[in-house]
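Thread amino acids onto this structure.
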C-alpha cells in the first residue's frame, strides 16, 4: 500500500512539475532603435500555468526605462506595443542600453 501511494505521489509531482516548466515566450524588438521615431516590439507568451508578471525594461547606465509592465493571465497572448525611444547615447557605446525581459 505504501509503495502505491508513493508512486501516485511521484506521478502527480511529475505532472505538476511539467506544467510549471512549459512556459514559452518570445520578445521581438528591433536591433537598432531610432530616436525620435516611434518603435514597436512584440511579445508572445504561451502555456501559462498561472498568471505571470511581465516587465520589459530598456536598461541603460544612467537610467532604466520600463517599456511595458503588466500581468499576463491567459495563454497564447500575442501583442505588439509601440514606444517612444529615449534620446540616443551621447557618450561611449557602453553607456547605451539593452532590452531585458524580466519576470518570465
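Threaded sequence (104 positions):
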Amino acid at each position: 500500500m505504501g509503495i502505491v501511494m508513493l508512486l501516485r505521489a511521484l506521478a502527480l509531482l511529475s505532472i505538476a512539475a511539467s506544467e510549471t516548466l512549459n512556459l514559452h515566450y518570445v520578445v521581438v524588438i528591433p536591433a537598432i532603435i531610432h530616436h525620435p521615431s516611434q518603435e514597436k516590439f512584440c511579445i508572445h507568451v504561451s502555456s501559462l500555468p498561472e498568471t505571470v508578471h511581465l516587465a520589459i525594461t530598456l536598461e541603460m547606465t544612467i537610467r532604466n526605462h520600463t517599456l511595458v509592465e503588466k500581468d499576463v493571465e491567459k495563454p497564447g497572448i500575442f501583442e505588439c506595443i509601440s514606444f517612444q525611444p529615449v534620446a540616443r547615447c551621447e557618450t561611449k557605446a557602453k553607456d547605451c542600453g539593452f532590452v531585458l525581459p524580466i519576470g518570465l
